[in-house]
Amino acid sequence: MLKLQFITLSMIVLIINGSYYKEQSFKPQQTNYCFNPLLFTDYSRLRDTLYTMKDHFIEVNLSTHSATLYSRSGVVKQFPISGGSSKIEEGIETREGLYVLQWKTKKQYSVQFDSTIMLNWMSFNGGIGMHALSSNGYYKYLGKKNVSHGCIRMSREDSEELFSLIERGTPILVHNGESALRIGFGKLGEVYKYYSYDEMKNVLEERLNNLYKGQHFLSNNQKLLIDEQNITSDGLLVGNSERIPTKQFIVPTNIFVDREIAETDRFDIIFGRKSLTNSGLSLHPQLDSLFAKNG
User: Which helix (H) or strand (E) is 209 found in, with range?
Assistant: First the structure.
């Protein structure tokens, strides 16, 4: 009798408890993840970056007939120029490339062209450099047309200012508007990789190919430092920006991130500037796994 009462009581308890739990509304934890915005970015404007510890660098765009001086302080100044042209007698096209200032002098005499005086001479590619002339006839072509025998002509005023600011080893990036390279200012405390000139040529070619194949973020992790020691007057390739695809591969584990992580922190993590383990970044393992399988 007691055994029957115990069984009956136990069944009543189970029924009550079962009803109690069934009455609770189950609310699954809200998934608060989103796609990394970098997935939808147009990367055709991405460029590989080389770094300098100098306080200035110069970018010469032969297609727009302009040179731009970038300063570590943030000041940017543009100058009209006239590059080389093969259409004039004994003229050659100014060659594209990444160079550095090799040497400079207030006056240089051109042996090839009847000892013409070149003022504020700044050499970067052997016998090719930036300079002014004592005459005024060439001024009408500055910023409009390439008419030099191969050098970068500037006004006397602009060349004087540039001459006073830049030092040996200052990078000079010369291109026709389609460079796949850009220059950045290095910072003390940052880690950079330094190669000899011959090594740099091979490494840079490989990096540019990675960029063209959409593997820039996967393979080009080192920051490369340049100066007057590892860039000779022969220069380095500047690549072709038209070969850069609109999409780049990104490491799958960085694809799905918590919305609560600040946007600046997301980019720091993705580009390796902040540790993943110390960031508070929340990943979605199932989505990561799915992306890895379908990637």
Answer: helix 197-212
Tens of pLDDT, residue by residue over 181-190, are 999 999 999 9
**Rounded CA separation 116/121 (Å):** 12
Cα dihedral 87, 91, 97, 102, rounded to 10, equals: -160
Q: Which DSSP helix (H) or strand (E) runs through 212? A: helix 197-212
Structural domains for the chain: 33-44+246-294 (no CATH), 48-243 (2.40.440.10)
Q: What is the pLDDT, as a whole number, of residue 6?
A: 53
Task: Report how far residue 175's alpha carbon sits from residue 152's, in angstroms, rounded to the nearest whole number.
Answer: 12
Distance CA 23, CA 19 (A): 6
Contact status, residue 220 vs residue 48, Cβ threshold 8 Å: yes
What pTM was computed for the model?
A: 0.74
Q: How many CA atoms lie within 13 A of 292 on its CB side?
A: 10
Rounded distance, CA 32 to CA 283, Å?
A: 10
104-108, 182-186, 244-248, 280-284: range with highest mean pLDDT: 182-186
Spatial CA neighbour of 198 closest among 160, 166, 230, 238: 230
Give the mean model confidence (pLDDT) for residues 170-191: 96
Alpha-carbon span 12 to 14, nearest angstrom: 5
CB atoms < 10 A from the CB of 95, how many? Answer: 16
State yes or no: pLDDT of 102 exceeds 70: yes
**Strand, helix or coil for residue 105:** strand
Single-letter amino acid code for the residue at 228? E
